[in-house]
Each structure stands twice: as C-alpha cells, then as structure tokens.
Amino acid sequence: MASKTPRQYRPVHETLEVRLALSLPPGAPTYGLKPPANTIALSLGQTTQPHAVSSTTATIVSKNITVGKSSTEFGVFVQPTSNSRIVPRILAVKEDGKALPLQLKRTYNPLQAGQPTNMSVAFFEAKHPGTVTIEVRGNRQSFGTYTVETTLIGDVNGDGVVNLADAQAFAPTYVEKMNQPGYLSSADSNQNGIINQYDAMALERNMTPLRKPGGGWMAINLAPNDLIRHAQSTNSGAATPFKVVTINGYTTPGSIILADSTLGNYKFGSLALSTTAQGFFTVKPINTLGVNIYDFKVLDPFGHQYIRSFPVFWTTYAKPNSPYVFKPTKNSPGGGLITGAHSQGGVTTGTSPGQSPSTNGS
C-alpha cells in the first residue's frame, strides 16, 4: 500500500502587540529605559493627533494578585520617548471595559525633561488577573510616542509576588536615594528618587498576610545577656551596664518596623526592619546617655500603624565618675543612637527563626 505524502502548510505570522511579558526576559526591548525589577509590562504607545486617546495593555497574571487582600495595587509610569513632544496624561485603566479605581499622583513636566523621576504616575487597583488597558492622551494639544511601565507595587525582588521576602529586601534600602549604593528602584513604589515611609506603607498594602487580621500590637525587650544582673529601679523598658545592646521585638509577621533614636520628634528617618515569618525582629542600638529612648513604628499587612517607645537605662553612664562623657553631634543629638545599614551601628535583620525575645519590659 502506497504511503501518502504529508501535506505541507505555510507558517502564518500574526502581528504581535509591543508588550513585554512578566519578569522581562534578557534582551527584550526596553525603549531606552531601565525598568525596575517589579515591572510586569513595558509598552510603547502613540497618539497621532491632538486630543486623541491612545491605549496600551498590560497583563496581570494570577500570582500578581495578593491572596487575602480585597484588591492589589499596581503602578503606571508614562513618559515621552526620545524626541517625542507629547506631554502624557493618564486618563483611565480599564479591565473588561470597566474603569478600575485610579489615583493620579504626578504629571509629566516638559520643563524637567531628562530627569529620571519626571513622568506621569498613577496607581490602580485590580481584583482579578487579566488584561488591563491603559488610556493616555497628550496635554496642551501635544501628541507623539510614549512608554508605559506597569509595576506590581511592593514586589522588591521582582518575582511577581509580594510577600515576606520583599519586606526583607526592602529593609536595607530604607532612606536611600537615587544614585546611592543601597537604592533599589523596585523598592521606590512611586519612583520619586527616595525610599521612605510612603514606600513601606505601599508595600504593606500588597503584602500577603501570614496570619489572620488582628489589632496592632508589639512586644519589645532587651536581650537577656544585656540585662543588669542586680536589683534596679523598675521602668517601662530595661536597664543595662553595656553601651551597645541588642533589642528584640515581636509583632505581626510580615510587618515593616521603622526604628529611630529620638528626642520625641518621631521622624523615623534612620532604619527599617523586617520581621521573620514568626514575627521577630532585632536591632543593635548604641546607648549615649543614662536614659536612652528608642522608638519603633510598626506598619503591618492589615493597615495598622502604631508606635512604641522603649527606654533603656544605661547604668554605667549614669553612675558617679563614669568614664563616659557624651558630646552631642549633628548625627547623634542624644537619647540613644540607631543608624541605618549604610552607617555604623545599625542592623536590618530579624532574629533567627524560632528565637524568642526576653520577657523583661514587655
């Protein structure tokens, strides 16, 4: 029996939209940009005449949606391409033809062309995976080509999910500015060139909860080896004979803790900490006075914010004829010293899994 010759088919090439997939692959077109690690889509758009509305799309996959949250927040960053005259304005973000909740944050300023933070910025909320359409129009009768960068807010490590690993990656970047060694653009949720409390809160809004919702709470204690060995007057904190001590804390797992030595201004501009999966964290401050006040602000995955002050009585400094003479400086005005990871004296890691803080002063 004679065999049949296989029928030959000509391949058909479909026109593809200019869009990059999740976790941009090496060699993919970036249109002259350096997208942060949390970019889930990078598109090229164009308006051809004044007042015309142009659309690009981005795909949200299932793992981008935070489990346990009512919605997930994404960022949209739009700027003209090189030599384009458009002044882009973000009009709407839609999914299945319906407008999603949208917050407009910044508008591109043509007078600041070339500045890396100069772009139109908006944030939208999505509840389901799918394709979203981003509508843009040129202000002041402008038109031309532009890029649209869509990010998953809080995804510092760029794996498409916001979880404890992102909080731990965020902590060393706190208070860093663009062009500084510790700065990560993926930790800068609004891409304004500085990583601050706003970015920490944005990450926590998308954080995957590690436990059921509960009220704000925190326990702070001095490490057992640093406690004074003889009777002392009691206070709401702890007493120690040592200049450098270890403070252990315990709070809602997945929280970001802002730590500061302060005289009561609560600026929290020194250091960020992340918990372990069990909720523990550790910091090593430097005592500078007889009574040192250390302040901690917790931002948890459920939107709670609360502050706890923890006084540490340094007995060696306070005793008569102490060898320690503290001289206030601009960086250390008094009240104890906690510094960031980029300075001396600070750490940003939590305690080891399973380690429990002491019960004194809780």
Architecture overview:
The chain is mainly beta. The protein has 2 domains: 39-161, Jelly Rolls; 211-362, Immunoglobulins (Immunoglobulin-like). It is built from 3 helices and 17 strands. It has a 5-stranded antiparallel sheet with strand order 1-9-3-7-6, with no helix packed on it. The protein is elongated and about 80 Å long. Mean pLDDT is 84; it is low at 8-22 and 341-362.
What is the CATH architecture assignment of the largest domain? Answer: Sandwich
Q: Unreliable segments (pLDDT under 50, ≥5 consecutive)?
A: 8-22, 341-362
Secondary-structure-derived class: mainly beta
**Number of domain units:** 2
Alpha carbon gap, first and last residue: 89 Å
Q: Which characteristics define this entry?
A:
362 residues, mainly beta, Jelly Rolls, Immunoglobulin-like, 2 domains, five-stranded antiparallel β-sheet, five-stranded mixed β-sheet, 17 strands, 6% helix, disordered C terminus
Structure summarized in a few sentences:
This protein has two domains: 39-161, Jelly Rolls (Sandwich); 211-362, Immunoglobulins (Immunoglobulin-like). Helices cover 6% and strands 31% of the residues.
